[in-house]
Structure formats: structure tokens, C-alpha cells
Design a protein that fits this description.
The chain is of the alpha/beta class and about 850 residues long. The chain folds into four domains: about 90 residues, no CATH class; about 200 residues, Serine Threonine Protein Phosphatase 5, Tetratricopeptide repeat, CATH 1.25.40; about 350 residues, no CATH class; about 50 residues. The protein has 39 helices and 16 strands. The strands form three sheets. An eleven-stranded mixed beta sheet has the order 3-2-1-4-5-16-15-12-8-6-7, sandwiched between helices. A three-stranded antiparallel beta sheet has the order 9-10-11. α3 packs antiparallel against α4, α16 packs parallel to α18 and α19 packs antiparallel against α20. The longest helix has 23 residues. It is elongated, with a radius of gyration of 32 Å. About 0% of the residues have low confidence. This is CHAT domain-containing protein. InterPro entries: CHAT_dom (IPR024983), TPR-like_helical_dom_sf (IPR011990).
């Protein structure tokens, strides 16, 4: 080959390498052909070295790290043989990157040292990789110093400047400076080619999460995924970075799925660096679950891999995860505390702000579990101090630490102060989330603060203050209302409606539901749900500002008693609010109440389906139900010494949420999620909008019921199959004064926002109710289990009741058990007759219950399970 030909080939190889780095999907496939062309020219050693490096860059972009390593090994041999020191320098640095990502830190360090000894070369690229090594072993401040020096070096190429700005942004975010990090990412984005721009978008999503801007983080990750697909980058690393956002949003099922998917991809391709990190994320997900011991194995395995890779900072993070899981499982021992304390020291040296807070908090909890008050207080104080400059969720951890420390020294006022401040911060954070689901889940971040404040107040405060605190920690989602979503899911909603229509028709025809159609429905639900997560909300007044004071509640009660239930350290109590004072009444062991409530629920379900049941089974269910009702009355109501005829407002807690309150007190009863939500509903009044009467498919009794009710409500809009589809019903419900739904309903524990009421052409979901932006002023739900919901940590519930109350419905009649459509006809007529005569919902339900035949099993269920909710 001529000298000119070799030069031309070299120029093409150099250009191709730059193109592959910028856009691997477009340029990468050309590398194989160029390598083959260079091989055919025996004298073209330098072009072949560069072409092999370009092909290795393409293989690395596809996570084919073994192939990339083999190509770079060949390139290094050729460069040494031809004494091409400059090219060897480049190859060694590239191979160090591959070795680093494979988790071979010692090999990466040897390549970097060898490249440095070669002398001339791109020193900034060498420094860049040294900073990457320091970052991955946990020496964040040292890595940041190198990055800042490279960024200020005028000799740095545009590509290097973009890489450094991106990497330094990640460091700044971990060091507690997210604003500086976002500025650096702006700079990186201006300089980056397509592939690096996709990585910068991913980094921005991660930094936004560290800044506490979680809805923006989700939107950014979705944008990054589009870019990753466009340039052909593998999604595993993107999914790994998304995990922190999902965990902060308490979307643990989604986080677990991503961790498993990313871990499998990294393991399959031999990317040990990120494979170990995915294993740690899996442990962190498990540590937050109801079975924290499931975190122990992946945390230990992750620690072993990090130790083999020479990454002490990551070993410390794995140890903190392991000890935190043991604390939650109640199995911590002195050796675990010692391990946590060592991990704290390692993380403090590395400078990871949020990790330091978490580590001190775990060490403090471990010391508390072992009755080591002094080290517990030291670690908790350090966690509080380290949290001051963190994001809102980091500051919340600091407030938990502060409240725990105050409790240790007997400072109840201090514990309440920390808890109150933390809950106000959480209220502001919750209002940045546009999704009701995410707002409900976010309340879980304050669950421990609520418990700590309650425990302190029960020791030292009057009952009225305890009642105010219980109101502060309950049903916060119902007191703030996000705006309806825009049109970004219009097509998905239409497609989902079409799929539901097909499924509804198949059910009417008695045909099986095709798996492909069910899969399509699930995919559409997932896209709609994710769009709701991305929806932002204009910050408004924190939830605490929407709370209503005791004096105003007393005015609205007009002499009626209000009873708020709560639990502390396994014991249930009630606060009875009367016209002049509040009284705390101890009630007994929480476990006993839960047993009776569960037994009653089981018995009612058996009695609701008596057809085909054996007489002995029905008799046993009847005895069980009556025994449970008697025990619940004795445990929850009798100690309160209420006037038997007085109307009562009940505020259940998680222990008593599914109790059928109308069956426990002789007078009218209404239940509400919190004192403030009840007061807001009570102040709203009955309203004067139109009446809407809806019957669902497959329920002949429901059609008769709605037709009978229409005589009581002249001019009502009556919607029965085949009319009364989802779109028409949701449109009619918005702004209705009174709505009656006699339909099948079902609760989706796996995806609660798609719990639904079945209508003529498909399902009206909680998500669609949320999109209404308005709701009927009063509603009667002759729907099975319509008063049930999916409870999430933080005293929030996702269900039909909460969805309607959140959108402005003032009073609801609903059931905590399945209902027979034939049995509800007479009951509904009596209930609506009372409503038409001016009764409130609680009084109307009370009146209708008196006409039910309780000697019939289904009548007994209806009489027991149907209650009033909201303002009554």
C-alpha cells in the first residue's frame, strides 16, 4: 500500500472512532469493515490499531465488554510491536475504561499507570479515567478535584469537556450541590454529541432526583430513554440510574423489576461494575419491603463483589443496607452495630452526603435496638446535622433522627417539634407531585414522624392536642387536589376504552378473554399511570394549612360527638371530642381488634354468597359474624359511653378502617378519613346539581333498582345498559348533586388507581375519576366492597371513597362487603326517600337499615356492611 493510501486509511480510522463515540448506532457497524480493510494491508499497522479501537468502542456501547477487551488486547500488541507509543497510550486508556466497567479495578489501574509512563498522549483523557476510578472507589472529593482541573484546562477537547462536565455534575450532586450539578449538565449538553447527550439526559434525571424534584426526574428519564434508543445505547445503565427516583417515590414493585432487569443484563454481558451496583439496589428495595430479611443475601453478595473490586465506599453502602434490614427484622447484634459504625467512617471520608445521613441513622437505630443510648444519640445527632443541606427527603431522614434522639433524652417537646417540621416539609414535597397515587405513597415518608410525634404527645399533651396531631398525619392527599391531567394520554385513554369495550362484549357473550387483549390493557394502563406520575403540580399551601381547627369542628358538629381512633405501641385508644372537652379512652390490644375485624369480614363474604352453601357452613358464618360484631362493639364503642341515639362521627385508623361502623352504634354514624376532611365535607352541604342513576351490566336487580329510584327523582338522568358507558357516565357524574351507582366493582391491589366500577362498555377506573376534576356532591355506591381501598403507609387509602372525597364529594353511602343486587332494591329506595326528604347521608343510611330483613343472610350483610362516609 502506498504511503498516501495508508494515510488516507488512518484519517478514516481516526474519524470513524470519533463518530462511533458520538453516535455508535450510526457509525459503529462501519468499524468491522474498516478493520477488515486494514488487516488486508500488512503495512497498515497504525490504521489497524485505530480501527480496532473504534470497533472496541462500538462493542462497549453494546455492553459486549469481552469482545471490546479482546479487540483492545490485539490493538495494544500491534501498537507495542510497531512502537506506536501515542496509539498505545490511547488503547491502554480505552482498555482501562473497559476493565473498570467489568469491575477489574487492579487491571484498569495497571493500564492507566502504563499509559502515564508512555509520556505524551492525551493527558486529559488519562486524568478523566483516573477520576472515574476514584469516583468508583468512593473518593468523591479527590475525583472532583481532578475533574475541575481538566475542565479549566484549555487543551481539553470538546468531547473531553462534555464528559468531564457530566461526570463532575454527578460528583457535585453527591456532595450535596445539585444546583451546581444542573449548571454543569447544561454545559455538557451544549458540547455533547448524540450518544453523550443521551447520557447527559440520564444524568440530569438522576441529579433532579437528588434535588428532590421527582416528577421532573421521571420526565427527564423518559426523555433519556428515547435518546438511548435513538443512538442504540443499552438501557440497563439508564434503568439502574432510574432506581433511586423510583425508590424515593416509594414505587418499590417498579424499582424491583428494574433492578432485576438491569442486573440480568449486566451479568449476561460481564459488566461487573454495574452488576454489583444493581445487586445492591435489589437489596435496598428488599430492605424497604415487608420482608426486610430478603435484603440480607443480595447485600452480602454485593459487598463481596465490591470488596473484590476494591471499592470500599460501595462496600460500606452494602453494609449499611444489610444492617438496616436486620434492624427492621429485629435481629441486629453488637457485631452488626460495629460494622455499621465502620461503614459510617468510610462514607464520611468519601463525602457522600445522603449516604452519610442514611448510615448514621441506621447506626443510631442499631444502637437503640441494643439499648446503647450513648452511641445511638451520637449517630442520630450526626445524621440530623448532616441532613441540613440535603434534599427534602434527606432532611426528612434528619428529622426522624432528631425526633428519635429527643425521645432518648425524654425531650417530648423536641420530638414533636422535629416531627412537625418534617411533616410540613413533606406536605410541600407532596404538592409538587401531580399524581394522587404518588401523593398517597409519599405520605409513607412521614409515617415514622407521625408515630414519634404521637408517642410523645400521648405522654405529655392534653387529648385535644393528640387529636390535632392525628389530624395532621391523616388523609393529607384528600386536602390537596392536583389539576386534571392534560391531553398527553388522550390517545391511550381512547385505546384503553376500546380494549375495555371489546372485553365487555366478550364477557356479555360468555367468551374467554384473550390473553393478548389483557396484555394490551395492562400496557395501556402502565402508560397512563406513568403519565400521571410525570405530571407536575404548581406548589401551593402545604397540607397543614388546609387543616381545620378543633373549635370550627365543634361548631360543625353542633353537639354530636366525634370519635377518633388511633394506636400506639400495640394499644388502641380513642379521642372522644364533645361540646366542651376532649377525652382519651384506652381501648385494648390492637391484635385482638384486628382478629375480630378480619373474622367479621370473612363471615360477611361467606354470607353474601349463600346459594349452594351447606347449612352448617352458613350457620357457622352467622355465628362468627355476630360474635365478631359483639366483640367489636365491646372493644371499640362500649368504653366510650356514647348516647345510644346520638349521631356520631367516626375517624378510623388503619386498625379499624374496615370496621362496619353503622352496625356498631345504634344511632346514625358517618366515618371520615380525618377530622379536617370530615369538616370540609360537612361544610360543603348537599348541593343542587342534577341526579344521575346508573346501572351496570349483568345485574337485572340493578336495572330494577335504578328504574324504581327514577320515580323519586323526576328529571334524573337514567343510564342503564346498553347506554351508560364510561365516557357518558363520567361526564354525567361531574357536577351532579346526587349519583347512584348500582354496578359490579372490583379492587385492584396490584394497581389500585385502576380499581374500577364496571359499566356498559367497560370499566370506570379511579384514574378516570381523578381526571374528572369534579365529582357528584353526594353518592350512593350500591357496589360490592365500594368502601374498601388499598392502604399505603402513611395512613392513606386508594379506593372509590378516597377518590370521590378528594374530588369534592361531600357524603357517600357504601359497603365494606359484597352486596347482592336484588337485596339492595328496597334498601336503596328507602335510602333515597330519606335523602329526598332532606336527611343527611348518615341519617338516610340509618333509616334504610331499619327496613332490611336481617334474618336473610344477604340482608344481614347489607344491614351490617353499608355505612355512611364523609360529611354525612
Amino acid at each position: 500500500m502506498s504511503q498516501d493510501g495508508s494515510t488516507d486509511l488512518l484519517i478514516r480510522a481516526v474519524a470513524l472512532h470519533a463518530d462511533v463515540v458520538a453516535d455508535p448506532r450510526s457509525a459503529g457497524p462501519s468499524a468491522t469493515g474498516l478493520v477488515a480493510e486494514a488487516r488486508r494491508q500488512a503495512v497498515a499497522r497504525e490504521p489497524l490499531v485505530v480501527a480496532l479501537r473504534a470497533q472496541a468502542a462500538y462493542e462497549r456501547s453494546r455492553m459486549a465488554h469481552g469482545s471490546a477487551k479482546r479487540l483492545l488486547d490485539e490493538a495494544a500488541r500491534l501498537a507495542r510491536a510497531a512502537e506506536l507509543s501515542g496509539r498505545l497510550h490511547e488503547v491502554l486508556v480505552s482498555r482501562a475504561v473497559v476493565q473498570l466497567e467489568r469491575g477489574r479495578f487492579a487491571s484498569a489501574a495497571r493500564d492507566l499507570d502504563a499509559a502515564e509512563r508512555l509520556g505524551p498522549g492525551d493527558d486529559t483523557e488519562l486524568d478523566l479515567q483516573r477520576a472515574s476510578v476514584l469516583y468508583n472507589v468512593g473518593r468523591l472529593r479527590d475525583a472532583a478535584r481532578i475533574c475541575r482541573r481538566i475542565l479549566a484546562d484549555p487543551r481539553s477537547t470538546v468531547e473531553t469537556q462534555a464528559k468531564i462536565a457530566n461526570n463532575l455534575a454527578l460528583l457535585e450532586a453527591q456532595l450535596g450541590r445539585p444546583a451546581a450539578a444542573l449548571g454543569l449538565l447544561d454545559r455538557a449538553d451544549e458540547l455533547a454529541g448524540p450518544a453523550l447527550a443521551a447520557i447527559v439526559a440520564c444524568s440530569r434525571g438522576w441529579v433532579l432526583a437528588r434535588a428532590g424534584r421527582l416528577a421532573e426526574s421521571l420526565r427527564q428519564f423518559d426523555d433519556a430513554e428515547v435518546r438511548y434508543r435513538e443512538v442504540g445505547l443499552p438501557l440497563a445503565e439508564l434503568h439502574l440510574e432510574q432506581l433511586d427516583t423510583l425508590l424515593d417515590l416509594r414505587l418499590t414493585a417498579e424499582a424491583r423489576a428494574l433492578a432485576e432487569r438491569a442486573g440480568a443484563a449486566f451479568t449476561a454481558h460481564g459488566v461487573g461494575l454495574m452488576g454489583a451496583e444493581a445487586l445492591l439496589r435489589l437489596a435496598q428495595v428488599a430492605a424497604r419491603s415487608t420482608e426486610p430479611e430478603a435484603a440480607l443475601d443480595p447485600a452480602s453478595r454485593a459487598a463481596a463483589e465490591f470488596r473484590a473490586q476494591g471499592r470500599p465506599g460501595w462496600v460500606a453502602r452494602a453494609e449499611i443496607t444489610r444492617v438496616g434490614a436486620l434492624v427492621r427484622a429485629g435481629r441486629v447484634d453488637p457485631a452488626d452495630l460495629a460494622g455499621a459504625r465502620r461503614a459510617v467512617r468510610t462514607l464520611e471520608r468519601g463525602g457522600r452526603g445522603a449516604d452519610v445521613v442514611d448510615a448514621h441513622l441506621v447506626a443510631g437505630r442499631a444502637a437503640l435496638a441494643l439499648d446503647r443510648a450513648r452511641p445511638a444519640a451520637e449517630h442520630l445527632a450526626a445524621a440530623r446535622e448532616a441532613s441540613r443541606r440535603g434534599s427534602v427527603l434527606v432532611r426528612l431522614q434528619g428529622r426522624v433522627a432528631g425526633a428519635l434522639r429527643a425521645s432518648i433524652v425524654g425531650d417530648d417537646a423536641g420530638a414533636v417539634r422535629h416531627a412537625r417540621t418534617g411533616l410540613l416539609d413533606l406536605a410541600r414535597h407532596r404538592e409538587t407531585l401531580g399524581s394522587v397515587e404518588l401523593r398517597a405513597l409519599a405520605s409513607g415518608h412521614g409515617a415514622e414522624l407521625g408515630r414519634l410525634g404521637l408517642r410523645s404527645l400521648l405522654r405529655s399533651a392534653p387529648p385535644a392536642d393528640v387529636l390535632r396531631w392525628m389530624d395532621r398525619t391523616r388523609a393529607a392527599v384528600l386536602l390537596t387536589s392536583a389539576p386534571p391531567a392534560g391531553g398527553e394520554v388522550g390517545e391511550e385513554l381512547s385505546a384503553l376504552a376500546a380494549v375495555q369495550g371489546e372485553l365487555a362484549q366478550l364477557r356479555r357473550d360468555g367468551a374467554d378473554e384473550p390473553q393478548a387483549l389483557l396484555v394490551e390493557q395492562a400496557q395501556l394502563e402502565g402508560r397512563i399511570r406513568r403519565a400521571a406520575w410525570r405530571r407536575g403540580s404548581e406548589p401551593g399551601a402545604p397540607g397543614g394549612a388546609n387543616r381545620i381547627g378543633v373549635a370550627e369542628v365543634r361548631r360543625l358538629l353542633a353537639g354530636r360527638p366525634l370519635v377518633a381512633y388511633g394506636a400506639n405501641e400495640g394499644q388502641v385508644f380513642a379521642i372522644r371530642l364533645g361540646a366542651h372537652r376532649a377525652v382519651l379512652v384506652p381501648l385494648g390490644d390492637r391484635s385482638e381488634i384486628l382478629v375480630e375485624a378480619e373474622a367479621l369480614g370473612t363471615a360477611l363474604r361467606r354470607l353474601s354468597r349463600p346459594a349452594g352453601g351447606r347449612p352448617a357452613t352458613l350457620a357457622a358464618a352467622w355465628r362468627s359474624a355476630r360474635h365478631a360484631l359483639d366483640r367489636l362493639r365491646a372493644l371499640l364503642v362500649a368504653p366510650l359511653r356514647l348516647d345510644p341515639e346520638a349521631p356520631v362521627v367516626v375517624l378510623p385508623d388503619p386498625t379499624t378502617r374496615d370496621v362496619p361502623w353503622s352496625a356498631l352504634h345504634p344511632g346514625p354514624v358517618t366515618a371520615a378519613p380525618s377530622m379536617s376532611s370530615w369538616a370540609r365535607s360537612a361544610a360543603a352541604g348537599p348541593g343542587d346539581g342534577p341526579t344521575v342513576l346508573v346501572a351496570g351490566p349483568g345485574l337485572p336487580g340493578a336495572v330494577r333498582e335504578v328504574e324504581a329510584l327514577s320515580a323519586l327523582h323526576p328529571g334524573a338522568e337514567v343510564l342503564v345498559p346498553p347506554v351508560g358507558g364510561v365516557e357518558r357516565v363520567t361526564r354525567a357524574l361531574a357536577g351532579a348533586g346526587l349519583a347512584h351507582l348500582a354496578c359490579h366493582g372490583y379492587l385492584r391491589a396490584d394497581n389500585p388507581t385502576f380499581s374500577a366500577v364496571r359499566l356498559a362498555d367497560g370499566d370506570m377506573t379511579l384514574h378516570q375519576l381523578d381526571l374528572l376534576g369534579a365529582a357528584p356532591r353526594r353518592a350512593v355506591l350500591a357496589v360490592c366492597d365500594s368502601a374498601s381501598g388499598v392502604a399505603v403507609e402513611g395512613d392513606e387509602v386508594l379506593g372509590l371513597i378516597s377518590a370521590l372525597l378528594a374530588r369534592g364529594t361531600a357524603a357517600i353511602g357504601a359497603s365494606v362487603a359484597p352486596l347482592g343486587d336484588a337485596e339492595t332494591v328496597g334498601f336503596s329506595i328507602d335510602l333515597h326517600r330519606a335523602l329526598a326528604a332532606g336527611a343527611g347521608m348518615a341519617e338516610a343510611v340509618h333509616t334504610a337499615r331499619t327496613g332490611v330483613d336481617v334474618d336473610d343472610p344477604r340482608g344481614f350483610v347489607l344491614h351490617t356492611a353499608f355505612s355512611a362516609y364523609g360529611g354525612g
